């Protein structure tokens, strides 16, 4: 997309340079026009020849026509240049809008990811706490089981002694 903008900018610069050249040529033609007009005025004052005046008038008309054509061309080039500038501006605005939308979307995704990381961290803390509680409960149950087994063993010993004592009595 940047290459397209670069091409359009180069085209704008090229057309801008052409525009300046046309303006310079118009200025030169205008200067020539003024010189020819002065020359014509001088010739009319000095020489009253019909052919000279006709020739100068023709030159003046030719230069005037040429100047008008250049002015029309310059106007057309200006319109084209404005269209290109508007197009580049619209494309840049579109590109900027797209970038802003993407930045917003990325920011939203980062925020969502952050929230999920917080949730995962909370779950991990709870899991760690539950794991510790479970280990403590298992230790307690193991101790209780050991006590139970010891009590069972004592019970059996006492029962066995009781049976033995009963037999003896």
UniProtKB/TrEMBL annotation:
Provide the leader sequence positions.
none
What's the main place this protein lives? cytoplasm
One GO biological process term is: centriole replication
The protein's location, in the record's own words, is: Cytoplasm
Q: Does the keyword Kinase apply?
A: no
User: Which terms in the GO cellular component ontology are assigned?
Assistant: centriole; cytoplasm; deuterosome
Alphabetically sorted, this entry's keywords are: Coiled coil, Cytoplasm
The answer to whether the entry has keyword Iron-sulfur is: no
Protein name in UniProt: DEUP1 protein
UniProt source species: Halcyon senegalensis
């Amino acid at each position: 997309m940047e290459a397209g903008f670069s091409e359009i900018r180069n085209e704008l610069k090229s057309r801008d340079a052409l525009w300046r050249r046309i303006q310079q040529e118009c200025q030169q033609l205008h200067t020539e026009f003024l010189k020819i007009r002065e020359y014509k005025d001088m010739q009319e004052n000095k020489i009253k020849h019909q052919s000279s005046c006709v020739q100068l008038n023709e030159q003046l008309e030719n230069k005037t026509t040429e100047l008008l054509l250049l002015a029309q061309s310059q106007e057309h080039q200006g319109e084209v240049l404005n269209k290109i500038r508007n197009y580049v501006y619209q494309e840049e605005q579109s590109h900027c809008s797209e970038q802003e939308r993407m930045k917003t979307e990325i920011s939203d995704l980062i925020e969502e990811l952050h929230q999920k990381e917080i949730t995962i961290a909370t779950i991990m803390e709870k899991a760690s706490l539950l794991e510790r509680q479970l280990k403590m409960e298992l230790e307690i149950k193991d101790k209780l089981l050991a006590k139970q087994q010891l009590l069972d063993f004592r019970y059996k010993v006492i029962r066995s002694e009781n049976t033995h004592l009963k037999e003896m009595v």
